[in-house]
Amino acid sequence: MNVYDGQRLAALMESRGMTATTDPADADVILLNTCAVRAKATDKVYSALGRIRRVKKPDALMGIVGCVARESGADAFRRVRDLNFVLGPQSYHKLIDILDNPDAKLLNIDMGGLEKFDALPPMTRSPLVAYIPIQEGCNHCCTYCIVPYTRGRELSRDPIDIINDVTHAAQTGAVEICFLGQNVNGYKFADPKSGQTYRLSDLIQETAKIDVIKRIRFTSSYPTEMTDDLIDMFRTEPKLLPFLNMPIQSGSPDVLTRMNRPNDVNQYIDIVNKLRDARPNIQISSDFIVGFPGETDDDFEQTMMIARKIGYINSYCFKYSPRPHTVAATMSGQIPEQIKAVRLARLDGLLNEIQREFNDACRDQVMECLYEGPDKTGMHLVYRTPFMQQTIVARPTDGPIAHLARIRITDANKASLRGEIVE
Ligand code: SF4
């Protein structure tokens, strides 16, 4: 979601004649688009602001947008006195106001619903992967999560607006559509005129009709919202990639209960089995939290077991960090940092091992991959497989770079694949 928000803000500033720079000493407007999901991310924002304020031009505007802005509110001005604006994730379109009136200080962390989607200019060119938000906020209230506080209750966008965005993205260069939402598969829009209810599966079917769109995916999914119509899309719609992010967070029913998440691990496994029945080569990714309050050694071993059983790829694990405004922050049984670190290292090691096994199994396969950009040296090109693995090929000596290329995988390590473009 932050990538999309950043692209929209960049489009706004470009529409005002500005150009992007990565050098804060050169910038007239400095904006940090922030995430508050972990305490470390929030700390990084304030240390970055401390570094930037020492090098920025005296009259440059500097501000934060996103979830740290919503979390900090007016306190952000106290912590960094030369901040000019603090805009929450649902009010970042108010950046227009500070550009028009740069001498003011602007604080807006209102929960403005879906207003922002219409308030900013459309992007004049789309990246190959267009991120299209379809819903905002979350009703699930996991006890560790700050999102319901920073992004509010769930709101689903009108499907007409979404398909207009998809069409615009296709007309301006997109090849892949990634539907976004904190609870993306909970998308539900009841048309007040027709009474018809639209789901994510309807959006996928409409999008697949657009010829230039070749790949479709969505993130992040809540396990018990994987309805049969959506699972069936993996059977019937070939443009839907065989890859799904469906976080489980823990393999222990006790921990899941305390997290206020679906605690029937067998039900989760049943959903994965249905998905594999619909699309036999589908791969699943997850996020995991280790060291949640009260997590015992046995609870943690259950997480290790589910990670191995499902065989998650492209997954992330984090140490639990208490966030303000959350129930879990006040729970008894907080786990010492050393124990969290040991568990994190073990789970991380297992996830890396599974990834390595999957990457190895891809050798000699030919996959259609989407171009992402040059690597750091400029000597190679980076593509993404349908399973989101980074794949590196030699830069062709002549001719245009193919946006979609058939690539034979020739080598693999735990982080990436190597391959050659097949004519
Ligand atoms: S489902 Fe996701 S976004 Fe919603 S409360 Fe839980 S962790 Fe947060």
Structure description:
The chain has 423 residues and is of the alpha/beta class. It has four domains: 2-108, Rossmann fold; 125-241, 2-Layer Sandwich (Transcription Regulator spoIIAA), CATH 3.30.750.210; 252-262 and 271-361, Transcription Regulator spoIIAA (2-Layer Sandwich), CATH 3.30.750; 366-421, OB fold (Dihydrolipoamide Acetyltransferase, E2P) (Beta Barrel), CATH 2.40.50. It is built from 14 helices and 20 strands. Strands 16-17-18-20-19 form a five-stranded mixed β-barrel. A four-stranded parallel beta sheet has the order 1-2-3-4, sandwiched between helices. A three-stranded parallel beta sheet has the order 5-8-11, covered by helices on one side. A hairpin with a 6-residue loop joins strand 9 and strand 10 (197-199). Helix 10 (228-236) packs parallel to helix 12 and helix 13 (297-310) runs parallel beside helix 14 (337-361). The longest helix has 25 residues, at 337-361. It is globular and about 60 Å long. It starts with a helix and ends with a strand. The protein binds iron/sulfur cluster (SF4). Iron/sulfur cluster is lined by residues 138, 140-142, 145, 147-148, 182-183, 222.
Q: Output the number of helix runs.
A: 14
What name does the CATH topology of the largest domain carry? Answer: Transcription Regulator spoIIAA
Number of domains: 4
CATH class of the largest domain: Alpha Beta
Mean pLDDT: 93
Poorly predicted spans? none
